[in-house]
Structures are given as structure tokens and as C-alpha cells.
Specification:
The protein is an alpha/beta fold and 284 residues long. The protein is built from 8 helices and 15 strands. It has helices spanning 14-30, 42-50, 70-78, 113-118, 120-124, 157-163, 211-218, 252-261; strands at 3-8, 34-39, 56-63, 67-68, 83-91, 95-98, 108-111, 131-134, 151-155, 167-170, 179-186, 195-201, 224-231, 239-246, 267-277. A hairpin with a 3-residue loop joins strand 3 and strand 4 (67-68). It is globular.
Length: 284
């Protein structure tokens, strides 16, 4: 039976490229087939798994230029039944698609907020007359191009090929080494890998409230690879802290650190112990 893989669609998004790469890994490593299922938002992609409409969800979590993907972190905290099965990192190369004859003709640029942010410096060269409008995905932005001859969209080269749209400019990332990390999440328990992702809130916003939770890892020389904060949405100045660390949940030092961590946190959620898969972009 094929595994259903939810992703942020429609076809042509960078998340679809990650889902295709994961599907190829599944077939090569486990001989399982994957069925790709597009959803219109990251939240709906993740909710499809908790509703058992899909087996796993592939979602972006962090970009090397723009940082964390807020909707992913917020929804994973909310849907705490989800467990990270794997992570993968893929390069991202943006192109400007348009039916306009030149950059000087442009009045509007559409794309996902992450893509707009990753090309911010390049977009500034177009001048203040060009309006930047966010969309739910890079591919959704393409639907404006046939209606608006002075519009452009930031999307992938693959999207240009899929939808037969001209590339007005290529490789428009602000920095050349642009890459995005994706999580593959499902409902299966995940407790044996090289990385652990977790999040917690602290009892009160007082001096040392964050230092004490972090010290449990420092004292055991456990390496933290990422720390992010997100508002709790309860009160101004209250935050959730998302942490990635290197370690296996079956190691005694890791178990001891996670156990001690509970004494310094209000709510602690462990999202999985998983491996980062070696990936290459799929051509199909």
C-alpha cells in the first residue's frame, strides 16, 4: 500500500520538490511507494495527518536566509500528536517568472512571504513603484501572471517548466547558499535518531528562566543546533522556546537531560528523535 504524503501545493512548490525527494528515498530505502497529496496551507498540510487523511506531512521549518517558518512551529506546537520522522535539507534557487517584456514594466511581484524575504535585496533594485504581495505558496502566485501583464512571481525553475511561463530573471536569491530544512511528520513514535526537536514554555518571565533549562544540556556537553522563540499568544512578553539538539533519546546522558528539563519548564513537548536524510532534488 502506498504512503500518502501531504505537502504545501499546488504542484511546483519547493515543498513539493522536498516531498518528491522523500518519495524517492522511500522507494529506494524501503521499497514503499508514495502518493503525493497537495494542500493549500502549511497548517492544513499538518492537520491532514492528525485527521488521518494522509500518512505523513512534509513541511518547511527553517530557511538559511529567512530563519524559522512560523506557521510550521505554531501548528506543530498546537498539534502535539505529530512526531518528526525525518528531516531533509534542499537547496532553493529562486527565479522571477513573468509575461512582461522587461523588469522596467513590472508593477507587482507575488510570492510566498518566505520567498519574498529571501529575495528582498534583489527586489529593492526594482524600485518603490513595484508592489510586493504575499501568497499562500510560490505556485499560487503564478495564477496572476496571465491576468496581469505587469505582474511577476517568484517561484522555482521547475514551476516555470510545469506551467510554461517565461523566466524574466534567474538566481535572484540575496545569498547564493540558500537552503531550506524540511520536516517529515507522522503519528508514529520517533525515538531513535541523531537529532531531537522539542519545545517548552517556562513558568514565569523572571531572570534565569531560560538559562536553567539550557544548562541541563551544557552541563552534559550536548550540542544545541537551533534555538527559536515564538509568542505563546497568551500575553505580551511570554514565549515558547523551540530547540534542536544532537543526541539519541536512548543515551543515558540525553535521558537524564530531558528528565531534568521537566523541572524547569511549564510545558515540555518532544517532537521526535530522528535522522537527517541525505537528499537530492528529484527530477520527476
Amino acid at each position: 500500500m502506498a504512503i500518502s504524503i501531504a505537502y504545501l501545493g499546488p504542484s511546483g512548490t519547493y515543498t513539493e520538490a522536498a516531498a518528491l525527494a522523500y518519495r524517492n528515498w522511500l522507494k529506494t530505502e524501503t521499497e514503499q511507494e508514495g502518493l503525493l497529496c497537495p494542500y493549500p496551507s502549511i497548517a492544513q498540510t499538518l492537520r491532514s495527518v492528525t485527521a488521518r487523511q494522509a500518512d505523513v506531512a512534509v513541511v518547511p521549518v527553517e530557511n538559511s536566509i529567512q530563519g524559522n517558518v512560523a506557521s510550521t512551529l505554531d501548528t506543530v506546537w498546537e498539534l502535539d500528536r505529530l512526531q518528526i520522522q525525518h528531516a531533509l535539507v534542499l537547496p532553493v534557487e529562486h527565479a522571477l517568472l513573468s509575461r512582461a517584456k522587461s523588469l522596467a514594466d513590472l508593477e507587482t511581484v507575488y510570492s510566498h512571504p518566505q520567498a519574498l524575504g529571501q529575495c528582498q535585496k534583489w527586489l529593492e533594485r526594482l524600485g518603490a513603484k513595484v508592489q510586493l504581495i504575499p501568497t499562500n505558496s510560490t505556485t499560487e502566485a503564478l495564477r496572476y501572471l496571465d491576468k496581469e501583464p505587469t505582474a511577476a512571481a517568484i517561484a522555482s525553475i521547475r514551476a516555470s517548466q510545469l506551467y510554461n511561463l517565461p523566466i524574466l530573471a534567474s538566481n535572484i536569491n540575496d545569498y547564493p547558499d540558500n537552503c531550506t530544512r524540511f520536516w517529515v511528520l507522522g503519528l508514529s513514535s520517533s525515538s531513535n535518531g541523531s537529532h531531537i526537536s522539542l519545545a517548552f514554555s517556562v513558568p514565569a518571565n523572571v531572570p534565569g528562566a531560560l538559562v536553567k533549562p539550557l544548562s541541563v544540556f551544557a552541563e552534559r556537553e550536548i550540542n544545541l543546533t537551533r534555538i527559536e522563540s515564538r509568542p505563546t499568544k497568551r500575553s505580551l512578553g511570554e514565549y515558547l522556546f523551540f530547540i534542536d539538539l544532537e543526541g539519541n533519546a536512548e543515551e543515558p546522558s540525553t535521558q537524564a537531560a530531558l528528565k531534568e528539563l521537566t523541572t524547569y519548564t511549564e510545558v515540555l513537548k518532544i517532537f521526535g528523535n530522528y535522522d537527517i536524510l541525505p537528499m537530492r532534488l528529484s527530477k520527476s
